[in-house]
Amino acid sequence: MIAAAGCRMRIPTWGFFMILPHDPAAYPPPLHMTIPKDIAGLASEADTLERMRIVLQRVRGAQLSVVDDTETDDVTANDANNANDPNNDTGNHNATDTHEQMNTPAYDMSDPSGDGDSRRIGTGLLLLVGVQDSDGDAEVEWMAHKIAHMRIFEDAAGKMNRSVLEEHGSVLSVSQFTLYADTRKGNRPSFTKAGRPEHADTIWNAFNAELRAYGIPVAEGVFGAHMLVGLENDGPVTIILDSDNRPTG
């Protein structure tokens, strides 16, 4: 078949011929999609999202031992290293440091320092608590209430239907700025989203006090210290809580 001048042929997959005009004006204009602002802003909003974050683990027992209670500013030091490292490619250095740490003598979790500085609980919750600079009383109160009443312990029927209050359990609370690690660039995490140490310490202590107000025994780690944490995760059950999930209305 010979196409007429000014036309073109299209051969569909079903096998017969169609002659279509070559003039672009004969076709409908292309569709243009506009992304709604509330969706388009999600990525940038996620980068600036500030929240209190807690990793909760249901345990049959947990213990914490202080290796070195000298407070270190790992956040500042690590991010300073990132700033001085254009490629942020420190895999070899990290591997060496990790190798050296793995070959240090093992500590006795019951009392690694030999001075009786050990904290332990039985049935209850191990909480790794991260704080950002925007966190305040509202976040503390909501988090403490949620954790005190969350039904994650088994009842007589084996269902998750009992709270740590009903279980008469305890809490081991550990401040944990590494929950805010940003690993998008290079091999060395950045922790710039973690709260300033003085603010994070205040909020963490207020959170522990709020849990105690519910009648829950709370054992604490040492803010900024090098610690060893051991646990027997029951389940295992591990839940991540973010304060930005709290109702705002």
From TrEMBL:
It holds the Pfam family Tyr_Deacylase. GO terms for molecular function: D-tyrosyl-tRNA(Tyr) deacylase activity; Gly-tRNA(Ala) deacylase activity; Ser(Gly)-tRNA(Ala) hydrolase activity; tRNA binding. Keywords: Cytoplasm, Hydrolase, RNA-binding, tRNA-binding. It comes from the Bacteria. Its EC number is 3.1.1.96, 3.1.1.-. Residues 70-115 are annotated as: Disordered. It catalyses: glycyl-tRNA(Ala) + H2O = tRNA(Ala) + glycine + H(+); a D-aminoacyl-tRNA + H2O = a tRNA + a D-alpha-amino acid + H(+). Residues 77-95 have a biased composition (Low complexity). It is an enzyme of class 3 (hydrolase). InterPro entries: Daa-tRNA_deacyls_DTD (IPR003732), DTD-like_sf (IPR023509). It is found in: Cytoplasm. One of its GO terms (biological process) is D-amino acid catabolic process. An aminoacyl-tRNA editing enzyme that deacylates mischarged D-aminoacyl-tRNAs. Also deacylates mischarged glycyl-tRNA(Ala), protecting cells against glycine mischarging by AlaRS. Acts via tRNA-based rather than protein-based catalysis; rejects L-amino acids rather than detecting D-amino acids in the active site. By recycling D-aminoacyl-tRNA to D-amino acids and free tRNA molecules, this enzyme counteracts the toxicity associated with the formation of D-aminoacyl-tRNA entities in vivo and helps enforce protein L-homochirality. Belongs to the DTD family. PANTHER family: D-AMINOACYL-TRNA DEACYLASE 1, D-TYROSYL-TRNA TYR DEACYLASE. This is D-aminoacyl-tRNA deacylase. It comes from Bifidobacterium psychraerophilum. The gene is dtd.
